């Protein structure tokens, strides 16, 4: 989930979008909206909410949702209830709306009313049995944040928890804590007895500390959160603790982190690396385990969890890489993290063959070849990727092509690649454009 993007870090993933079912709709209503603005206009006419599916072609969590969740009769029923629109995080429209809605995870499923007000959201991959009860509840009775606050004014503690969790979903820690602090003392005390409220308050404190880059506060808040039952969020919170503690003296850090090993092992063994996982994001759990073991100085344990994940993933995939892209991409990451370089090199070429219709694997393999000093070998793969790249990822591909060409002293070609891409890009994605310009001057 990764704020979108764990170890892509990154969040973060292309989710499946089926066309709106035509049965029972007028012809104009049957047209699938291409943008969120189009969907909101259709929402006003049809009096149906909008479900925005934020995703990206590189998003491993989106691969899971596409293959395992966003299909079948339950998904068809969702499409009858809501106007579903796909928003690509690499497109200008997608990035604009992600910022507007504070959607920092991929995938994110945000339900809007016809005015663009949020009625609820689901972040990161979810098993079917968790996703559909959540999304159907939002579609049936979702409310805006202001509406939730009104219900919380005189409602039960669970109504207060609803507000706090809505702030948490938006990563608005300071705002959520400020709202709770404005409640009466008696209301705070009553709500504070509720387990959901307590977990949400601790999560909001963690979000606030992260936003302030306050490592000491992150450590304190993460420890409080991890001491509670937080289900599938455990690896993400542990990531916060690992990052925030990185500059501590080694012995102090090991003492701090040692208490997390047993809970994480239990989590992995009972909810992740089992036949029917309760938590869909296997990758984050495996990588968090390896990172924790490395931080504790146990290289053998880190290697063991990666080897276990590699073996299990290969068994589930067999020789059919195209059968489950989430698993296929997880295996790539496990091989990379385990530094099984020869296997990874061969495997990346298999992925290019298995998924030829987008830029992702040709780009990644080409980038790897550039980084390992093989620019001439990289160029054909990068050219293949360039033919399919768009938006922000077009600039990323061009950056690697420029690096490869300059390494081969083909500066004129590098300048042509950069100028063509920058011209077609226009004013969008300024950070990526600046990186491309800098590479050209290097």
UniProtKB/TrEMBL annotation:
- Its domain of life reads Bacteria
Signal peptide residues are 1-27
Q: Which InterPro entries did the record assign? A: Thioredoxin-like_sf, Thioredoxin_domain
Key words of the record? Signal
Tell me the ranges covered by the Thioredoxin domain, including all copies: 14-140
Q: Which PROSITE patterns does this chain map to?
A: THIOREDOXIN_2
- Stated name of the protein: Thioredoxin family protein
UniProt lineage? Bacteria, Pseudomonadati, Pseudomonadota, Gammaproteobacteria, Lysobacterales
């Amino acid at each position: 989930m990764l704020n979108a993007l764990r170890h892509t870090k990154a969040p973060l993933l292309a989710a499946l979008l089926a066309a709106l079912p035509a049965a029972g709709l007028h012809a104009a209503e049957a047209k699938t909206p291409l943008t969120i603005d189009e969907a909101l206009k259709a929402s006003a006419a049809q009096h149906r909410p909008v479900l925005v599916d934020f995703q990206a072609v590189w998003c491993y969590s989106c691969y899971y949702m596409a293959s395992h969740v966003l299909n079948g009769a339950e998904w068809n029923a969702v499409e009858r209830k809501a106007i579903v629109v796909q928003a690509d995080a690499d497109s200008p429209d997608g990035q604009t709306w992600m910022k507007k809605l504070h959607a920092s995870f991929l995938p994110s499923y945000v339900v809007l009313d016809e005015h663009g007000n949020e009625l609820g959201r689901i972040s990161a991959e979810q098993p079917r049995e968790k996703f559909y009860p959540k999304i159907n509840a939002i579609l049936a009775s979702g409310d805006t944040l202001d509406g939730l606050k009104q219900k919380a004014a005189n409602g039960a503690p669970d109504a207060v928890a609803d507000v706090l969790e809505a702030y948490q979903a938006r990563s608005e820690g300071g705002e959520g804590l400020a709202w709770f602090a404005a409640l009466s003392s008696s209301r705070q005390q009553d709500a504070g007895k509720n387990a959901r409220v307590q977990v949400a308050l601790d999560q909001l404190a963690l979000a606030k500390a992260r936003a302030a880059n306050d490592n000491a506060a992150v450590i304190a808040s993460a420890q409080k959160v991890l001491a509670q039952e937080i289900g599938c969020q455990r690896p993400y919170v542990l990531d916060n603790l690992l990052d925030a503690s990185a500059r501590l003296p080694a012995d102090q850090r090991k003492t701090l982190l040692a208490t997390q090993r047993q809970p994480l092992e239990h989590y992995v063994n009972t909810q992740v690396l089992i036949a029917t996982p309760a938590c869909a994001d296997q990758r984050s759990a495996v990588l968090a385990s390896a990172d924790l073991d490395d931080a504790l100085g146990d290289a053998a344990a880190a290697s063991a969890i990666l080897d276990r994940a590699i073996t299990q993933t290969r068994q589930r995939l067999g020789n059919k890489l195209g059968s489950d892209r989430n698993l296929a991409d997880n295996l790539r990451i496990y091989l990379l993290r385990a530094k099984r370089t020869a296997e990874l090199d061969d495997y990346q070429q298999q992925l290019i063959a298995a998924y030829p219709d987008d830029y992702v694997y040709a780009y990644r393999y080409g980038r790897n070849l550039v980084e390992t000093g093989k620019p001439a070998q990289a160029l054909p793969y990068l050219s293949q990727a360039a033919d399919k790249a768009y938006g922000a990822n077009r600039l990323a591909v061009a950056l690697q092509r420029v690096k490869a060409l300059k390494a081969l002293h083909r500066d004129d070609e590098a300048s042509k690649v950069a100028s063509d891409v920058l011209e077609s890009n226009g004013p969008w994605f300024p950070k990526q454009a600046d990186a491309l310009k800098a590479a050209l001057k290097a």
